[in-house]
Amino acid sequence: MPATSSRTADALTINKARTLANVAERARTLFADGYRAQQFESAAHLFFVFPPDTDKRPYIVDTLNAHCTCPFHPQHRTCKHRLAIEEELRDAARLDEQAEYLTFGQYLADEEVDDAERQAEPALPAYYTCTGQPVYAQA
Ligand SMILES: [Zn+2]
To answer: Cα(92) to centroid of ligand 1, in Å?
Structure first.
């Protein structure tokens, strides 16, 4: 019956959504809960994720192939370990962007100081001849 199968599909979707929300919530507190992460020295996309219980073996998160070696991942195609690592990487990228922005701001400030020097720089050639000689536009 279409109505019944539709309800079943809705129930599955809701259960899946709940599971995913739960995973995302646990990912947010993963490191606060005592998990530790360590990037592979040989591969920037691979991370050990050590559980708080030191007797347990670490899982390996592969950000390039969106994979984790924990038992939860194959069934749900996601897990708190991978989400936590991906969030860390996004945070790191944001910090990098901010650092670059600050550097660029510093560059602009320096430019103002060096304004006189900058005007003394030679003008760019208008074009180059076929033998590579620069040709300057007439002032
Ligand atoms: Zn995992």
So the answer is: 20
Distance of CA 70 from the midpoint of ligand 1 (Å): 4
> In degrees rounded to 5, what are phi and psi of residue 61?
-95, 130
**In angstroms, what is the span from residue 98 Cα to ligand 1's centroid?**
30
Calculate how far, in angstroms, residue 78's C-alpha sits from the geometric centre of ligand 1: 7
Threshold 0.70, pTM exceeds: no
- CB environment 66-86: b (16+ within 10 A), e (fewer): ebbbbebbeeeebbbbbbbbb
- Domain ranges in the chain are 8-110
Tell me: the pLDDT tens digits for 57-101?
999 999 999 999 999 999 999 999 999 999 999 988 888 887 877
Q: Quick one: pLDDT band at residue 106, thresholds 50, 70, 90?
A: low
- The token duo for 112 is 């103002």
The one-letter amino acid at 96: D
Nearest to residue 66, comparing CAs of 56, 76, 58, 54?
76
Task: Give residue 72 CA to ligand 1 midpoint distance, Å.
Answer: 6
